[in-house]
Amino acid sequence: MDLDEEIQQRLEGLKIPSHIAVIMDGNGRWAEEHGLTRLQGHAAGRRAAKRLVDAAIEVGVQVVSVYAFSTENWSRSENEIEGLMALIEEALRQELKELQEQQVRVVASGRLSQLPSSLQELLAKSERDTADNRDLTLNLCINYGGRAEIADAAAAIATDAVAGKIAPSEIDTELVATYLYHPELPDPDLLIRTSGELRISNFLLYQLAYSEMVVLPVYWPDFDASSLLEAIEEFNERKRRFGARPS
Ligand code: IPE
Ligand code: IPE
Ligand code: MG
């Protein structure tokens, strides 16, 4: 896919964030507005996720983390949960070959052992098969919670401390970061949330400490390459300080 000329022009001179994290929100509201079921909204959201991946590759982003299912999303109806799990699995199964051709490395983050076993197996296979790809890294956050990730890291650190592998005095923010699900990924530079909600909803709590946040009004199924550009343009207006004195 080639980005259209207008987008190519808008890209000129822009600094591209290395890692973009995306809270793909608004599928249900989009469906309601179109007189469709929530699951039809999620199916439309899947197509938007593909547009995001294609556009991110074109633009030259290194890592995209997408929030596909949160640890709190289990409180939805059984029908919606089952539909979402089936949709995630079907999407990955159908897209894997193209992701491979696009040189995308797939990784998964979350409490994966609580997912349906067929999805767990597919995620493991996808990670294995795409491990050497060097274009975009696509981090699929499924049954992901920022608090759960930090709690899992704390448990692993405690286990290593009891085993004598690390001393409590060695535990600092950098060591904690090495116990996260994917310590090799840089922190997100930019967090995008669609559908206008101004909250983090338990996404990447440790890693988002100094990310710039852009909230777009569009519902996730309407997200396209132009929406990505809009967020990157806004990112370029920001002055990142990381706690230092303003220059
Ligand atoms: C985001 O859309 C997808 C998931 C959370 C899985 P929602 O389903 O949250 O859509 P709204 O927020 O109800 O519109
Ligand atoms: C966040 O959206 C989770 C995902 C996009 C997977 P939610 O729709 O679940 O978040 P809240 O409930 O509005 O905070
Ligand atoms: Mg929502």
CATH topology: Undecaprenyl pyrophosphate synthetase
Please tell me how large the radius of gyration is: 18 Å
Within the largest sheet, what's the order of strands?
A: 3-4-2-1-5-6
- Counting DSSP H or I runs of 4 or more residues, the number of helices is 8
- CATH top level assignment: Alpha Beta
Number of strands: 6
Describe the fold and architecture.
It is a single chain. With 247 residues, the chain is an alpha/beta fold. It has one domain: Decaprenyl diphosphate synthase-like (Undecaprenyl pyrophosphate synthetase, 3-Layer(aba) Sandwich), CATH 3.40.1180. Helices cover 44% and strands 14% of the residues. It has 8 helices and 6 strands. Strands 3-4-2-1-5-6 form a 6-stranded parallel sheet, with helices on both faces. Helix 5 links the parallel strand 3 and strand 4. Helix 4 packs parallel to helix 5. The longest helix has 24 residues. It is globular. The model has no long low-confidence stretch (mean pLDDT 97). The structure holds 3-methylbut-3-enyl trihydrogen diphosphate (2 copies) and magnesium ion (MG). The site of one 3-methylbut-3-enyl trihydrogen diphosphate has 11 residues, from strand 2.
